[in-house]
From TrEMBL:
Cross-referenced Pfam families: ODP
Superkingdom as given in the UniProt entry: Bacteria
Native species: Thalassolituus pacificus
Stretches assigned to coiled coil: none
Taxonomic path: Bacteria, Pseudomonadati, Pseudomonadota, Gammaproteobacteria, Oceanospirillales
Transmembrane segments: none
Domain spans labelled Metallo-beta-lactamase: 29-218
Protein name: FprA family A-type flavoprotein
Cited InterPro entries: Metallo-B-lactamas, ODP_dom, RibonucZ/Hydroxyglut_hydro
Length: 245
């Protein structure tokens, strides 16, 4: 599991865990993130059960287990949270923040010790050390209960499946040109994003944020000017289950 520092200012860091060269065939590549401030850290979409061992090993190179005080699951999909039952054994004093809608589904992955903290539909904020993270509503993109995470100090938006592209583990980390990257995103977004109204609501929220890095759950990350280019492209893209693209 490769680890990349996306942002660092004193004891405030964003680490991305991805591009696992040992990933099994047939398992999609996912991007996991950790935000640290002082002696607290949160894992964002910590991954599927098959990634637990390499994820735990990679994370412990940066922080001791007792400093991982929080987990976040943007929605209910197994590729981001089916490892929960194992984290439940490794981090018994942590709290999991996730949409209220998916609590009864997520508990199927195993959660006896970790405390479930429901995120209301309108979103909320969470203090991690000396920083405050914002849980931004992203409902129906693609899950009916879904959130993204924004760090106003680091100016990073963890955007879940928005901006995602399915690529190999040796793909570059950053989007270089939108003209070559758009074909890798188009069909995924047209098939998995079911609501144009929800899409436009999310774009309105995103345009109000100062985003220096947009970090999706799959594929490459976006920096200016590609962030705005993505928003413009996504705004014009017709999406929905009837789109064959």
């Amino acid at each position: 599991m490769l680890a990349t520092t996306l942002y660092e200012d004193g004891d405030h860091r964003w680490i991305m865990f991805a591009r696992d060269p040992q990933k099994a065939e047939g398992i999609i590549d996912t991007n996991q993130y950790m935000v640290q401030s002082g002696d607290q850290a949160i894992l964002l979409d910590p991954g599927g059960i098959e990634l637990f061992a390499p994820m735990l090993s990679a994370v412990l190179k940066f922080v001791p287990a007792e400093h991982i005080t929080h987990l976040f699951a943007s929605h209910q999909d197994p590729d981001i949270i089916s490892s929960l039952g194992l984290w439940d054994q490794a981090l018994p004093n942590a709290k999991l923040y996730s949409p209220w809608l998916w609590e009864s589904f997520i508990r199927h992955f195993g959660m006896e010790k970790i405390e479930f903290c429901a995120i209301p539909d309108e979103g909320m904020t969470l203090n991690i050390g000396r920083i405050q993270l914002q849980f931004i509503p992203a409902h129906y993109l693609h899950s009916s209960g879904n959130f993204h995470v924004y760090d106003p100090k680091a100016k990073i938006l963890m955007s879940g499946d928005v901006g995602a592209a399915m690529e190999s583990t040796d793909a570059p980390l950053w989007v270089d040109t939108m003209s070559t990257h758009i074909p890798k995103m188009r069909k995924f977004h047209q098939r998995w994003m079911p609501s144009n109204e929800a899409k436009l609501d999310w774009i309105r929220r995103a345009r109000q944020l100062d985003i220096q890095i947009m970090a999706p759950q799959h594929g490459r990350l976006f920096q200016p000017p590609h962030v705005q280019e993505f928003l413009n492209w996504f705004e014009d893209l017709p999406v929905g289950i009837a789109i064959k693209g």
